[in-house]
Structure formats: C-alpha cells, structure tokens
Amino acid sequence: EAPKDNHDEL
Amino acid sequence: MNLFRLLGDLAHLASIFILLHKIQTTRSCRGISFKTQALYVLVFLTRYVDLFFHWVSLYNFVMKIFFIASSCYILYLMKYRFRPTHDPSLDTFKIEYLLGPCFVLALIFNYHFELAEVLWAFSIYLEAVAIFPQLFMLQRTGEAEAITTHYLAALGVYRALYIPNWIYRYFTEGVVDPIAVVAGIVQTGLYLDFFYVYFTKVLQGQKFELPA
C-alpha cells in the first residue's frame, strides 16, 4: 500500500 | 521524527537564513538564480496544499508556513527590493525543460491519481531539479561569493541528511516512500560536483572557482 498518509516529511 | 531528519530540516532552515543574510548584508542578489528561487516557491505551494486538510504536527505546520513565507519573501526581495542587482542575462536556464517533464512524471508516478497527490509528486520531482538554474548560473560565471556557496552547501547537506533519515525509517518503522527516495537521491547527486569544489577550495579558505 502506498504511503498515502505518510507525507509527514517536509 | 529522527535526528537525521531534524538536522536536515535545520540545515534547510539555515540555508534560507544564509541566503537572506547574504541578500540583506550585501544589499544584492548577485549570483543567486531567480529562476531557482521561483521554482522553490512553486515546490512549496504544490507540496503543502495538504495544509488545508491534513494535520501532521505543530512542527510540520510551522515549518511549512515558514518555507512558503520565506521563499515568497526572497522572491519579493529579488524581484522588487534589489531588482537592479539581478542580472537576467546570466540566469538563462530554460525552466520549461524542468516543469514539463516533472509534470508528466507526476501524472504517471504518483501514489493516488488525485489532484493533491499529483501536485505532491510534482513538487518532489521539481525540487529534485530546481537547483539546475542556480548550478547553471554558477557554471556560467565560474565563481561565486563564499556566502553563496555556504547557502548551496547548507541546501546540499539538508538533502544529504534525508538519505540516512530514510534508511533509519526503513529499519525502525518499515516505511519506504519510493518517490521521495528516488527523487531525493537524484537531487543529492546533483550537489556532488559542487561539494567537491566546496570542500577542496572554500573550506580551505580559497575562492570558489570552477576549473576553466
């Protein structure tokens, strides 16, 4: 599963 | 959050303060590519659309606002305040060659085919190559003020630190973000030539000069 909610990096 | 990412973000912050310091103290944006700075504004605006619907943390929020605001401010300084000190005849890289391919890549390689995700992927690809006009300008002039090279070095360090951050995250969280990793490695690679000259010349107290 693609890290959809994973854009936690800048 | 881990130490590599924190230090990387701090290097990114440092690069922006170095650039602001350079512009304010020399009252000039000589040697700085307006095109690269404009691309960074576009990078931040397209990446951080999730500010409106996805809360990560206060740290994340504050940094995003800062990156958007500071990059716009730098553009303002270059475009209006110190406009006469910018020489467009040296800043000649065609950014269409970057924007088009990045947009196509984002349409093909994204995590979900929806606006915010395509814009996010676009911003990742664009950030990877946004330094091109700046490096191209450096190549054309063949030299740079020390402070400009410190700015570029801090930017490069920021990118380099994101790589151990991903390795660390892979082992501790089992998380891999292939789009960010591939683009990030390409982006870091673009700094290698620069770093070589920076470490062998500028940090030894010599002027940044490219071999003729």
UniProtKB/TrEMBL annotation, chain B:
User: Can you list the GO cellular component terms from the UniProt entry?
Assistant: endoplasmic reticulum membrane
Task: Kindly report the protein's main subcellular placement as a broad class.
Answer: endoplasmic reticulum
GO biological-process terms attached to the record? protein retention in ER lumen; protein transport; vesicle-mediated transport
Q: Where in the cell is it found?
A: Endoplasmic reticulum membrane
Q: Out of the domains of life, which is the source?
A: Eukaryota
GO MF: ER retention sequence binding
Q: Pfam families given for it?
A: ER_lumen_recept (PF00810)
What is the membrane topology noted in the UniProt record heading this document? Multi-pass membrane protein
The membrane-spanning stretches of this chain are 52-76, 97-113, 119-138, 150-167, 179-199
Q: Which UniProt keywords apply?
A: Endoplasmic reticulum, ER-Golgi transport, Membrane, Protein transport, Receptor, Transmembrane, Transmembrane helix, Transport
**InterPro entries named among the record's database cross-references:** ER_ret_rcpt (IPR000133)
Protein family per UniProt: Belongs to the ERD2 family.
| Name of protein | ER lumen protein-retaining receptor
Q: Which organism is it from?
A: Paxillus rubicundulus Ve08.2h10
Phylogenetic classification of the source organism: Eukaryota, Fungi, Dikarya, Basidiomycota, Agaricomycotina
